[in-house]
Amino acid sequence: MGDRTFRRPKTDKRMTVAKQHATAIAVSLAMLTTGEHAVAQNASELELRLDAGSTVSSRSRAVPMRAMAFTPSVRYADSRMTLSGSGSAWLGADRWLLGNSEATIEAYTPLLHGVRAEVRANANRRFLDPANQSDQLDAGGRLHFMRQRAGIWLGSGVARPLRATTVSNVNVSSGGVWTRLGPATLRGSVTSFFFTKLSSPDTIQGSVPCATLATSTPTTAIDGLSSIQSTASGCRHQSRLTDFEASVKWEHRLMELTVRGGQRMGDSFDATPESRQWASAQAAVWISSQLAAVAGGGREPAQPTRGLPARSFGSLGLMLAYWPIPRGVVPVETPLSQVQAFELRAAGTEVQRITARIGGVESVEIMGDFSEWTPMPLIRRGRDMWELLIPMTPGVHQINLRIDRGQWIAPPGMPTAKDGFNGEVGVLVIK
């Protein structure tokens, strides 16, 4: 159809008379998130971020650590895989420290009857302060059953701590559910950790089962002959922890708010009182399409599988985010695959609110018989949200969408009709 901005003749309106009973369906696709992978993720995405700000972390009987943190990160995603990586540099006590860092690869099978298999491998480093650091490798898989606005998943995997010498491999089992309710995404999960922990006998309570480890030490008898004496030096304890966690992510125009909380179940040796409950929150306000102010804080539980204690934390800073893939670096996707969500709702008498979620683009326009086929630009409301209020009378209408002044297309999820120019228009009914 090309790049055209001409006015269509009024005779085009008659082309949809046969479809007056069609219903305009606005389909909102679930976004690709850690627990809520998109049902249809066709477009390639490249996201770059740089977080910079002040952070403070404190734990029991320790001096709080304050530092400036700089965290660059990158994430690439398409319909089959996701690659992501990040690293932090902390400036504290007049010296630089390597903070949290992580590299992850995820792969997915094609969606079949709402079911998809997912595998994941991860290497990460956690840094609380110079005395509390942990490296870990983990891998796992899960089955995800999903619909447009909800899903459920079950998974299993194994983790290998590299710095925690008292813990062997950790078997991880998990399950969860998620759903989207308007601008909010709700998520709940249950994660069970099973591992073997080596401790000294005096740290094990009498009620906790313990397998004593014997070590052999050479001794010298009175007659000068050597002998072997066995002594108890440690205790191998089978540990199991179960974490229940819930989170809510709410997005509205220029604001994003995430709140999470959890409860830990387990015996007192593994689940200490300060780690039984936890909660945290983070808010981001988008100053522009690529700049946001971020603030957060809360409480994190101990991680006995990694030897890290519980802590309280707070942070305040700025985030530079989201640059699209430069055209020519990867094959350019079709405009339709770039639209993650397109919705039209009543906003008053004969007024409709159009909302679109399209990331990594510079302009979004619509036109139709309601605008006499004159292009109307949508207004950016955040990093990937676009919005426009338009007057629209009840009845059957035609509408087209254009991204970055490319070709005109029918919005996704709507019935379509031929437009007489070897193209298609979306058909919607306003009651």
Gist?
The strands form three sheets. A 14-stranded antiparallel beta barrel has the order 1-2-3-4-5-6-7-8-9-11-12-13-14-15. It has a five-stranded antiparallel sheet with strand order 19-18-22-24-23, with no helix packed on it. The chain is 1% helix and 60% strand. It contains one helix and 24 strands.
Average pLDDT across residues? 77
Characterize the largest beta sheet: strand count, sense, and whether it forms a barrel: 14 strands, antiparallel, barrel
3D shape: elongated
Number of strands: 24
Please tally the helical runs, counting DSSP H or I stretches of 4 or more residues: 1
Fraction of residues in H or I helices? under 10%
Strand order of the largest sheet: 1-2-3-4-5-6-7-8-9-11-12-13-14-15
- Catalogue the unreliable spans: 1-43, 325-334
- Secondary-structure-derived class: mainly beta
Order of helices and strands: EEEEEEEEEEEEEEEHEEEEEEEEE
Distance between the termini: 30 Å
Share of β-strand residues? over 45%
Radius of gyration: 28 Å
